[in-house]
Amino acid sequence: MPKEEQLMEIVFVEIRSEISAGTRGASLGPDAMYIAALNAGSDLFDRHDYIELPDANEALGKPVKHEWAKRIESLMEVFHSIVPEISRVVRENRKFPIVIAGAHGTAAATIKGLKAAHPDKRLGVIWIDAHGDLHSPYTTPSGNMHGMPLCIALREDNYACRRRDLSKETITAWEQIKKLGGEEAFIRPEDLVLVGVRDMEREEWEIIREREIKHIPVSSIREKGTYRVAEKILQHLKDCDSIFLSLDVDAMDSSFVSGTGTPCIGGLTPGESRDLLLELLQDPRICCLEIAEVNPTLDMQGNRTAEIAFEILDAAVATIQTERQNQA
To answer: What CATH number labels 10-327?
Structure first.
């Protein structure tokens, strides 16, 4: 894609991996968003550079070796591609990466890549999602690794709430993916904010309680409004030097968004999601934006989920460019 002169150096990072999901089709999410842009008459994706990373989706046709950490070895391969590339984009190129991801399981590698770019800086994470993604192989009800990225980032086993014992092979693979690039956790529990989470198992709520992880329900956004909630989130992360902002489209109510692997009722409206993102993006510490889990094969409304995701992305890019120019 040709790059034109622009206000802010943005690069789209396309991660089509869907091996961490329980349903197929999220790898088509980037294409669905590109089609939404074309139908809207937008040249957004032509105005910026993009990087396409390996997805290892060929693993979907192979037998599952680890029942409670499905395709973890292939996911590790994907991580090994994501971490250095995200780090390079941020550290060497000094660009703002916008990740368009398939399944949300790869977010742990994006977090690690951001941390690797500036290892001495404190990284915060804002996780806008219907799910906490705070499972480990010891607690997962499905074995799907898109439910584990935050436990990977926190290096959390939640062993006290374990449902099962694991094989030595699974334990070894889990320890390897948690320790990717070093012994320390990628983020601290106090530097994580969950927004809109509502569909979680008891084990995840237990981690939130034990680790005192900040979580903001949809009802709080409705009551206080996006401006005040964004202010509250950013104040909570006041000690962080940089912040990763991740939106799983299932954070939005399933009446609006059906084209995703795990739709959930009781969520945000598209307008609330957009407004919250735009408020948060005004903070110069936001160093990376991610939109994940668009699955057009499941969309009961044509390509509506991708259209909503693109509308949010388009507004986000405009805000990033304007705010970073004003801060320059």
So the answer is: 3.40.800.10
Is the CA virtual torsion 71, 135, 155, 146 positive or negative? positive
| H-run or E-run covering 214 | strand 214-216
Q: Where are the beta strands (DSSP E) in 225-315?
A: 242-248, 286-292
With H, G, I as helix, E, B as strand and everything else as coil, classify residue 261: coil
- Looking at residue 326, its pLDDT comes to 73
Nearest to 286 by CA among 234, 214, 229: 234
Per the DSSP assignment, residues forming a β-bridge with 10 are 96
* Closest by CA position to 227, among listed 280, 289, 268, 290: 280
Q: Which two tokens stand for residue 19?
A: 């091996």
Average pLDDT, integer, range 72-85:
97
Q: How does the average pLDDT of the chain come out, rounded?
A: 95
Residue boundaries of the structural domains of the chain: 10-327
For the record, the structure tokens of 153 come out as 């980032």
**Span 114-133, average pLDDT:** 97
Q: How far apart are CA 224 and CA 313, in angstroms?
A: 24
Collect all residues with Cβ–Cβ distance below 8 Å to 165 and sequence separation of at least 6. none
Pair 152, 76: CB distance under 8 Å: no
Quote the tokens at residue 186. 């990628």
CA distances from 168 to 66, 185, 305 (A): 10, 22, 41
Mean pLDDT of 7-17: 91
Quote the DSSP letter at residue 122: P
